Amino acid sequence: MPPPPPQPTTTEEEDGEDAFTEEVLRLTAFFRKFYYNDLRDIILDADASKLHFPLVIEFAELMDSDPEFAGYLYSSPRDFLPILDTAAQRAQSEMIKQSVDLKREGKQKKFVHVRIDVSGSPLEFPETSPSIGKVRVKHMMKLITLKGTVIRSGGVKMIEFERDYMCRKCKHRFSRCPELEAGNRINLPASCPSTSSRGCVCSSFEVIEDTITCHDYQEIKIQENVQLLGVGSIPRSMPVILMDDLVDIIKPGDDVIVTGILSAKWSPDTKDVRSNLDPMLIANYVRRTNELKSDIEIPRETIEDFEHFWKEHEYTPLEGRNLILRSICPQIFGLFTVKLAVALTLIGGVQHVDASGTKIRGEPHMLLVGDPGTGKSQFLKFAAKLSNRSVITTGLGSTSAGLTVTAVKDGGEWMLEAGALVLADGGLCCIDEFDSMREHDRTTIHEAMEQQTISIAKAGLVTTLSSRTTVFGATNPKGQYDPDESLSVNTTLSGPLLSRFDIVLVLLDTNNPEWDKIVSSHILNENFDKKDKINVSEVKWTLSQLRRYINYVKNQFKPVLTKKAEIVISSYYQLQRKSGTHNAAHARLMFRNEVIQLDAIAAILCIESSTTTSPIVDNIGDALHSNFTNNPDEIYKKQEKKILKKLGLIEDSP
Questions:
Q1: d(Cα 221, Cα 120) in Å, to the nearest integer?
Q2: Kind of pairing, strands 277-288 and 255-266?
Q3: Which parts of the sequence belong to the MCM C-terminal AAA(+) ATPase domain (predicted)?
Q4: Which phi and psi angles does 431 have, rounded to 5°?
Q5: 213, 158 contact by CB (below 8 A)
Q6: Strand bridging mode 470-475 / 366-370
Q7: CA distance 63 to 66
Q8: Taken in order 589, 590, 591, 593, is the CA torsion positive or negative?
Q9: Which of 32, 78, 363, 536 gets the highest tally of CB atoms within 10 A of its CB?
Q10: What is the DSSP track for 66-80?
Q11: Alpha helices in 99-242 (DSSP H)
């Protein structure tokens, strides 16, 4: 038996206790000064179903008040986080003693957990907030912050948190906590930890009954954002341990920011397989960022540039719109209709909720059907770059489980793992080679596209996940496209699935010598006359500027229909039953909060391009050969007059 460790002298113990008490008193004063109202709400909370109460504090405030303790908290969080909890309990006790109202109406809560919010503090720097793939040994046992998407969520379990033991010889009582790193196993000391002057070397202990403390426990897995990775990089993931008030507050597909202690646990024992230490994060604070997932930081100067741009084009709004559209997939010449449809799909409409709670989605879906070489995949990739939350996949490499949710078994327990549509919640899901998907796999996305939810019942797990996703698909026709047959026959896609796409553009590579001449001239100009290929006014619409513009108009404008636009849409609806989503999207694109007649007619022109023959406007269905015009506002007036006549809203002039 190894000799017992040297025991500290009485003077060392007293000094340590004095330092501990002094720190608790300082933190108690800190809580009462900055978080009095939060503690008061906890004391007055009469919800009997709650056992654990979070007290969220800002690390930046703690640094200003007690920088020394903040430094210790970062470097040794496992030792100093319990001091914060003790101080919170002491602050509760003092507040109740000094307040008659709290003493009469409130009650001191047994479990108050201090949660650290690192927003606006140095802990947001890359050194203390690395990406999941850059977590290294130097971060071990430090307080770090990780950002990612929840891809797997386990069930809520009960875990033994603390147990009291008693020495059989000297009757000394002490507590022990299970080690998460060792598979929740309790390791007893080699000898009695008694600090009496006589000492005790007994190694026999017994459990004291009714002293076991249990806590709620849940294990999830988060994955780093694919958008932040380079080409060829594999997204890394990490398990996260949630306890007490943190359990069951997030689900697969949620974007989260997790602050906690980086630790490691031994991998399961497997025959002939070497055991390794796998990193894991023991969470202290979890913040869902679903409402922030589409936000991009937009400087005030950029917003002023947008406003100035539209003031310049106040009298030629369509010319200004076309300048923006030219910057979408600029390597492809022309295809005005496709670029307009891509812009409207990315911007999206406004979600409506009626009195009964029924939701009408605002996210449109788009499908490109075309011959090989017409640029479908290029548009998909560029759209994914414009959306700051996107997932790209192909039909051949996707299954129903990969697109929606799959149930996986981990450590003897079934867990849900999010698929592409759930991971793209609030963003864009691009599916290339849509026709390569099996029919069974296609039917699984019907609910996700229309109801924007995914209902599952797998391995005893029954739940509904959110999938507010815009689906952008591309497919080849089945053999030679036959204009006399329906779209369903030409693409082998079922009618119910096609009906969920708000706009379907057909790109047919027909023999057109004039168009071929224009395109070849454009390609030659691209190579030999690069100085003049971009107009001075177009330089500002770079990829980053387009991303900012799309994000800004999506969040800033909630367009409503004007009376004239409503009449046009109502008349058109009698001819073709289509969604009104693109009207609001076009109004947002034009930087306004009203859907006017121009927006309604532009949406009609875009929808009419879904078919190869248009019942309203002649020659509008050839999306592949649609080009940007020199005087879009003048041409619009002629198209407007023709459409209004077809709809019967104006009479023919004699």
A1: 26
A2: antiparallel
A3: 320-523
A4: -120, 105
A5: no
A6: parallel
A7: 5
A8: negative
A9: 363
A10: -HHHHHHHHH-HHHH
A11: 100-105
- What residue type is assigned to position 576 of the chain? Q
pLDDT of residue 109 exceeding 50: yes
| Contact between residue 289 and residue 256 where contact means Cβ atoms under 8 Å apart | yes
- Non-local CB neighbours of 63 within 8 Å, separated by 6+ positions: 70, 121, 122
Structure-token pair, residue 496: 């119910």
Nearest Cα residue to 239 out of 169, 387, 135, 389: 135
Rounded-to-integer distance, Cα 348 and Cα 81, Å: 45
Give ∠ CA 226-417-432 in degrees, rounded to 5. 50
- 294 near 347, Cβ under 8 Å? no
Q: Kindly tell me if the per-residue pLDDT of 490 is higher than 60.
A: yes
Q: Is the dihedral of CA 200, 204, 207, 208 positive or negative?
A: negative
This prediction's pTM: 0.69
The two structure tokens encoding residue 143: 């307080």
Determine the residue type at 566.
E
Q: What is the mean pLDDT of residues 356-361?
A: 74
Least confident of 54-58, 60-64, 639-643: 639-643
Residue 553 phi, psi (nearest 5): -70, -30
Amino acid 252 reads: P
Grade residue 534 by pLDDT with cuts at 50, 70 and 90.
very low
CB-count burial class (<10 Å; 0-12, 13-18, 19+) for 430: buried
